Structures are given as C-alpha cells and as structure tokens.
Amino acid sequence: MPHPLNDLLPASLRRAWAVDGTCPDLDLYSLFRARQISDLHRTAVIDAKGKLCYTALDRKVRCLAVGLRELGVTPGDVVGVQLPNARAAVIADLALAAIGAVALPFPVGRGAAEAMSLLRRAEAVAVIAAAEHRGAHPAAALLASTAETHGGLPASDRSGTAAPAPLRHVIAVGPGAVPEGAVPFAQLLRSDPAAFVAARPDPDGPARILVSSGSEAEPKMVAYSHNALAGGRGNFFASLMPDPAQPPRCLFLVPLASAFGSNGTAVALARHGGTLVLLDHFTPEAAVAAVREHEPTHVLGVPTMARMILDRLEQEREQDQEGAGKLPAPTALVLGGSPLDATTAAEARHAFGCPVVNLYGSADGVNCHTGLGDPEEQGSTGAGAGAGAGSGSVDGQRDGGLGNRHGIVAGRPDPRVADIRVADPATHEPLPEGAVGEIVARGPMTPLCYVGAPELDARYRTPDGWVRTGDLGLLDADGVLHVVGRLKDVVIRGGANISPAEVERELSAHPLVRDVVCVGVPDPVMGERLAACVVPVSRASGPAAPTLDDLVLHLTGCGLDRAKHPERLLLVEELPLTPAGKPDRAALRERAARA
Fold it and tell me: Fewer CB within a 10 Å sphere, N or C end of the chain?
C-alpha cells in the first residue's frame, strides 16, 4: 500500500474554500475536459512537433489512461514522470489525473540514483521516462538501477523498515530506441479511447507530488490535492490575467516537472484553458526565438534565465542584427525560484516592455507575488511604467523597489492563494508589524503533507496546519511581505553568521556584476569563508570582470559590515543550473573551494 497522504489542514477549511468558490472543487481532468468541450480546436500545446489542439490532446490522454489501467495502475497509485517539456509530459499529467493516480514529476536532469530514491520513498508503481534526452538515456538508466536491486527497489525505506512493493513498469517515451524491458509509451497511446472511464477522484485528494529542492539531505516530496493546484495556485495565476475571458499563452522556460512548472498543466491549461509553449531545453537563443514566434502572454522563468536572455539581446544589438533587441511585449514576465534583484528587474522590464512579476514561493506551500496593477509596487519611469506596470520596479517606493534594506519585496499576500504571517520561530506566535521572524503560510494552495516523512510534517507544519518556510521576513505597515533571508542558509565564519542573500542583494547592484551567488567554502582556521561567484557584465570588448577589491569597496560603500565581505572571488561565464532551473549552489561551492 502507498504511504497515506493525510491532509494536515482542518477539513472545514478545505470545504469552506470549495463552497465559496475559492477552489473549483473539480479534479484536474474534469477541469481540462470542460475546457476542451468549450473550445474543441483551441491550441493546447506548442512544442518541437508543432501544435496540438485540446481535442487531439484529450484523445491521447484517454488512450494513455486506458493503457495505464491495463498495466495495473489504479487510483491512488504513485507514478513517476521524468520527461522534458513537451506534449508527452502534458499527456502523462492529465492521464494520471484522469485515472485517479498521483503524479510524481521530476526533471530529466536528475540522475538515476536520485530518481530511484524518489520513486522508492514514494512507493511508485511505475515511471514514465524519456528514452533519450540530450545524450542521456533516463529510461535505460532507471531499468539498470532496478535490475541492480534484483528486479526491485532498494531493500529499505528511509526509516529502515521493510521495502515497499517494487517498481513494476518503466515506460519509455521517444524519440530514441526503447530499451529492452521497458513499455513503449507509443504502444499505450494506441489503446482504445472508447474504453476510457474517468475516475472522478476527490478534488481534495492527492493529485501530484512536488519535489522540493530545499536543504534536506534528500529532496522533500510534498503532496498536493487537485483543489490546491487548480484552486490555490490557479488563483495566483488568475491575478496575472487582466481579462479572465482571454486564455493565457504561456512560455514555460522552467521544467514542467519542477514545483514552479506545476503551474503548467494544472493551472494554465486545466484551470484557465490556455496554451502551453514548451522548449525541451532552455537556451537564451531558443527562448528569444519562441517569444518572437509565438508571442506569449506570459513568460515564466528564473532570474538567471532572464539575465541570460538580456545578454543575448545585448549581443544582437552589438552585432547589429535585424530586429536586434526587440521583443513583442507579453502581459507579464514571471520570475521565481531565486531572489530577483532590482537591476535585473529594471532591465527585464525595459527589454520585455511589460511588468516583471517577482514570485516568492516554494514546493512546501507558500506563494506571494508582486501584482500587475498594484500602485505600491509601480515605478515612475521606464518601459511599461504606466497603468498595470509595476512589479519589478526599481525607481519607486521602499528604498528602490524589489531590492532594499528590508530584503526583497515579495508583494501582498493573497488569502485566495495563501495567507501569510510572520511568526516567532520558537513559539509560532504572530509577530507585530515590521518585526523580522519566520514566514509561515496557510491557505487554499497549502499541500496535504510530506510524503513518507512524518518527521518533516512535525518539523515544518504547525498543529493547526501552517507551513513553516524556514525563511525570514517581515510585513510592513502596508501589509507587504519582505523576504530577508533564510533561517538555515548562513555561512558561519569564526562563529559569526553571514547571510549569503544579504551580500548577494548588495553585490547585484555593482555595475560590473551581471549575476552573483555567494557560498561558504571550508576553511581550516575560520570554519567557513564567503566566496562570491560572479558572472561579469558582457561588453563589446569582452567581459568586464570586477576584482575582489572592487566588490569589497562596493560593499563598504553600501555600509555592509566588514565581517560579511566575501574573501574569495570565482568568475564564471554563467551560473550552473540545477535540473529545476535554479542556481546550483552545491556545484559553485565545489568550484569555489578548488579555486
């Protein structure tokens, strides 16, 4: 039997949100089906194969649902999904929802050992994986890992008790040769759609497991219901749609298999009837081409991706290419996954000609964002600074917009998504306005629980269901949330704590710094020393690289305590990214330690 996915929120709260319309109270496939019926030939997905309309997508979903049932996948079973951004990932998401199974997506960049750990801990009965992707062979690697354990998964779970039932099927998705022992995805798509019967699962029951890239030794897995995805997360996206009658066209630069990417199939498609524009691998060239060709209303990525796109546009201008540096303006550029600095926000707003929405959120169950038309967040100049502009301003209120002395402006909490408080980390009691404490959240998007990890439920959920984020922040007099740093994300130098986020925030304003991540590196004397990993600004004559003395002088001018200044500098051409699209701090820490 799979792990029980118990809801740690009071049932009365869940029902109240369904009754008052905050949540749609329908399962994800039913929501998608209603969208398909209302507009049969609307484009659902645009990927490397071209366009796929809602009706054609529904037929493929029904075929796969029948095929999965014939393999023995039943309601409540967990099925892993390791696919790049393409139509197969969308088909898999909807088919699993249609049969009442629980999807466990994770990006194709995760290695077989980590993937098998996720599948084992979630007690997955099957996994749908790419046969080949950018030189890797995920399906074959998963089969080999399973074979090494004599046809099953490792012999114990995280608590050391007897192992669950082994993974029964690896389903391989082309292109590429299907490895021996795998079930061809194409074969399942040839099932008879007439045999399909929708399961109609409980909307408050589990639909998807999000994998957190947090600070635990193993990635945390967080179970979400249909209502939490389409309702809570769906309400977040609804606030970024000026006209609800106009379905969005969303370019997802982040993996659909990431926590941020869960806004794809469940939200943009099923809840809002939109179109997904998908790239199977992010490059700044491909992203710029997709914006120009498909003119998305929303572009979703992380700040590092935005900076790479800005560099690409600057290269076009330097090379005097036709149409250089110009993009059709979306409704919004939505950036999350890591802190958004003021410089990037301003440059991106100018380049894209639209508001830059700063999304603060996590797989664990928190979401807050700057909006499209909040006058408190608007700047007074620059592209898009008129009505509805505002979210990435740097020349407006609060000491310069997104980045200021009170941390990063995350926006006003929306109770239709998640109510947010700042609490004492020890007592969990709410703190007064302006006081710094731990950010806690509870609302329609709040997940059910952690998967197979009651110790994480005890650590990160309060008895009345609030999610403890581990982030430090404050709520100002206007009810705006500022994120200051992390409770655990500190570098300890000679017994003194240094917040990397604080140093990064100041360094991001240096004129020679395009991107920066600060990490701690081991030191035999001080325990740790702070290293700044910097992507220099690119110019026609080449990168203009700052020196360590340049950075120290800048931080001194900002008034930052000398003890917090970096003592090492690592210059990189670009920041390495994790499979989820975030800066890979572990890789940078290793490189900085060797430098």
Answer: N
Q: What is the pLDDT of residues 170-229, one digit of tens each?
A: 999 999 999 999 999 999 999 999 999 999 999 999 999 999 865 455 789 999 999 999
Separation CA 111–CA 154 (nearest Å) = 16
Candidates 312, 317, 307; CA nearest to 340 is 307
Written as one string, the DSSP assignment of 351-392 is HHTS-EEEEEEETTTEEEE--SS-GGG--SSSTT-STT--TT
pLDDT(378) > 60: no
Q: What SS3 class is residue 443? A: coil
pLDDT at 551 over 60: yes
Cβ atoms within 10 Å of 192's Cβ, excluding its own: 11
Instruction: Please write the tens of the pLDDT for every residue from 253-293.
Output: 999 999 999 999 999 999 999 999 999 999 999 999 999 99
Q: Where are the domains of the chain?
A: 28-201, 229-486, 491-594
- Beta-carbon contacts of 334 under 8 Å, excluding residues fewer than 6 positions away, are 240, 298, 299, 300, 301, 357, 359, 369
d(CA 512, CA 510) in angstroms, rounded, equals 6
CATH 3.30.300.30 fits 491-594, yes or no: yes
- Please tell me the distance from the alpha carbon of residue 24 to that of residue 381, in angstroms, as a whole number: 39
Strand, helix or coil at 306? Answer: helix
Please check the confidence at residue 380 and state whether its pLDDT lies above 50.
Answer: no
| C-alpha–C-alpha distance, residues 232 and 413, integer Å | 12
CA–CA–CA angle 91, 92, 96 (5° rounding): 120
Count how many residues are written for the chain.
Answer: 595
Are 28-201 and 491-594 in the same CATH fold? no
Burial of 543 (0-12, 13-18, 19+ CB in 10 A): middle
- Domain 28-201, what fold? Rossmann fold (3.40.50)
What b-and-e string marks burial along 312-341, b requiring 16 or more CB atoms within 10 Å of the CB? bbbbbeeeeeeeeeebebbbbbbbbbbbbb
β-strand pairing of 481-486 with 467-475: antiparallel
Which amino acid makes up residue 538? S
CATH superfamily placement of domain 229-486: ANL, N-terminal domain (3.40.50.12780)
